[in-house]
Amino acid sequence: FNSWRLDQEGTLPNDLKNRGLDDLNVLPCYHFRNDALLLYEAINKYITAYVSLYYPNDEDLQQDTEVQSWANELVKERNGSQGGVGLLGVPGNGKLETRQQLEQIVTCIVYTCSISHASTNFPQYEEYAFPPNYPGLMRGRPPTDASADVQERDILESLPDRPTTLDIMIVTKILSAKGTKSIGDFEVQYVFDPKARDIVDEFRKDLLKISKKIKERNLHRNPPYEYLDPEIIPNSISI
């Protein structure tokens, strides 16, 4: 967390580029990237429209003391109960000068709490429940000699025992369960401004289109990658 940056790891296009995962020719079947970018763009479109509705120009944003205090809190050094979040790479570095800076910050937050969370959280049971695929821990001492003759028996003996495996299965099964409504289908209705409702409705239409496209993609994927279908993605962190 001390090195994590909102404008890099928290910004999907930049994160993919920095890790060399943005080139379709190099990695054509990276389903997370292909689906996540559709959703990231839809979220950014939604946030941009919302910000523009309430801040017609940059000057209006600069004069909003509440949102400026919030931006400062994001970058303020962590220091007990009086400290801030201590995030690095926050556009504006605590002082919002342009609407674009606010749009990027909020887009990153929504992305992290929805797309990023869904892609990390929901596959847990399928990945961890079969220990040889993704053991939650390994027993014994790892080989110290690269030329050592490691047999299949050695690998099996290093895997978790049955009680530990069952514990891992229980925990990951619970964590993989969806506990909130889908993205765009809010738990509590806070939006009553007719113009804002129109923006939300447009966002939901975009999500329906993306859901249809991902379902079509999954017809040709083996196995299908269903974790980023908007019907499955939660509104917020769901554990």
From TrEMBL:
Keywords: Dioxygenase, Metal-binding, Oxidoreductase. Pfam families: Lipoxygenase. One of its GO terms (biological process) is lipid oxidation. GO terms for molecular function: metal ion binding; oxidoreductase activity, acting on single donors with incorporation of molecular oxygen, incorporation of two atoms of oxygen. It comes from the Eukaryota. Residues 1-239 form the Lipoxygenase domain. InterPro entries: LipOase, LipOase_C, LipOase_C_sf. This is Lipoxygenase.
